[in-house]
């Protein structure tokens, strides 16, 4: 009997030990599974961050700023930091620039000039607050009828928009992003964007394998206003020239470069607004022919805009929306009869 009791005790002890070992094994397995799951989650999160394009990537609403491009306004401030820059013809064979900026902190932007009505189409498609210094009669009318969130520097204080001494009027009005955002807040404008980016930015390098070599690109807006880009293979960006001069930043004299160039050819005609100033209008709400140029290559594209606030869709000639390299883009909307040259 005594031997039986000892056997039972030993058996119970063995069962408890075996159960404990089994429980410990299961606990260690669960710990390893949890660690592996966390490692996978961390890797996945890290990959998402790495693969996200940087250009116009935040939720903040962009601002669109009209920039003087007259020879007396050069050099300008803000071109280095802009995400997108539109250049379009205005009266007298001149062109003006419109900078699209998001989440930038700039002490000086300018010189700022007056609004032209067709620039509104591109401020609207970028869901941007439109900043200008004065306006044409057509621009004033369209800003009201289209309900464009805008800031007209002429009606703001000299602390918000001011004139500098190293250029002369009307080529010397400037402001800062801080002032713009403070005015936008006072006016009650929405501060978060509600549209996706116009351009389909990607992280993987776009090399346009089937494109033609594009080391030099020349775009004449008029006989006295010619834009040229020279490809820098080391930088993998294009250096910008205007009127035969390399464009640089106003204060730092740093060279203005761009990763991407998009060209659109649109018909411009003189607007009959009664002013006699030769202001232009643009036939741009339609499909336009153009080019996408990056990394030393160019392809032909179509640029389709169906409404003034609708976003332009850029497609290759097979009908596929183009991928655009992450980085600055100049969008050159030039006269339809401009003799564009693309050279090796």
Short description:
The chain has four helices and 22 strands. It is an alpha+beta fold.
Question: In words, what does this structure look like?
Answer:
With 344 residues, this protein is an alpha+beta fold. It folds into two domains: 63-187, YerB-like fold (3-Layer(bba) Sandwich), CATH 3.50.90.10; 201-343, YerB-like (YerB-like fold), CATH 3.50.90.10. It has helices at residues 2-50, 120-125, 137-146, 177-187; strands spanning 63-67, 84-89, 95-101, 129-132, 150-152, 162-163, 173-174, 201-202, 212-213, 216-222, 225-232, 237-242, 245-246, 257-258, 260-270, 280-283, 287-294, 297-304, 313-316, 324-325, 329-335, 341-343. The strands form four sheets. Strands 1, 2, 3, 4, 5, 9, 15, 16, 17, 18, 19 and 21 form a twelve-stranded mixed sheet that branches. Strands 10, 11, 12, 13, 14 and 22 form a six-stranded antiparallel sheet that branches. It has a two-stranded antiparallel ribbon with strand order 6-7.
What key phrases describe this protein's structure?
6-stranded antiparallel sheet, globular, 12-stranded mixed sheet, YerB-like fold, 2 domains, 22% helix, 344 residues, alpha+beta
């Amino acid at each position: 009997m005594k031997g039986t009791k000892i056997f039972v005790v030993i058996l119970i002890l063995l069962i408890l030990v075996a159960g404990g070992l089994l429980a410990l094994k299961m606990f260690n397995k669960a710990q390893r599974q949890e660690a592996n799951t966390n490692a996978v989650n961390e890797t996945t999160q890290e990959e998402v961050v790495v693969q996200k394009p940087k250009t116009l990537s935040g939720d903040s609403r962009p601002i669109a700023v009209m920039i003087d491009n007259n020879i007396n306004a050069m050099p300008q401030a803000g071109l280095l930091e802009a995400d997108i820059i539109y250049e379009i013809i205005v009266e007298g064979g001149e062109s003006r620039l419109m900078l699209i900026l998001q989440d930038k902190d700039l002490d000086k932007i300018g010189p700022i000039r007056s609004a032209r009505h067709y620039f509104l189409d591109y401020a609207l498609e970028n869901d941007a607050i439109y900043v200008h210094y004065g306006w044409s009669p057509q621009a004033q009318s369209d800003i009201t009828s289209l309900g464009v969130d805008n800031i007209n520097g002429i009606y703001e204080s000299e602390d918000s928009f001011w004139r500098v001494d190293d250029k002369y009027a009307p080529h010397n009005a400037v402001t800062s992003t801080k002032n713009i955002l403070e005015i936008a807040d006072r006016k009650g404008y929405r501060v978060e964007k509600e549209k996706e980016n116009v351009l389909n930015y990607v992280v993987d390098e776009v090399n346009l394998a089937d494109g033609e070599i594009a080391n030099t690109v020349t775009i004449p807006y008029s006989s006295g206003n010619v834009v040229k880009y020279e490809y820098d293979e080391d930088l993998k960006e294009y250096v910008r020239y205007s009127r035969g001069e390399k464009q640089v930043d106003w204060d730092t004299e740093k060279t203005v470069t761009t990763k991407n160039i998009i060209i659109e050819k649109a018909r411009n005609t003189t607007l009959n607004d009664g002013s006699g100033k030769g202001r232009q209008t643009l036939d741009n709400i339609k499909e336009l022919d153009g080019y996408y140029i990056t990394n030393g290559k160019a392809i032909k594209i179509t640029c389709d805009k169906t409404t003034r606030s609708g976003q332009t869709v850029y497609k290759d000639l097979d009908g596929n929306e183009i991928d655009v390299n992450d980085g600055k883009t100049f969008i050159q909307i030039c006269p339809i009869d401009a003799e564009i040259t693309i050279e090796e």
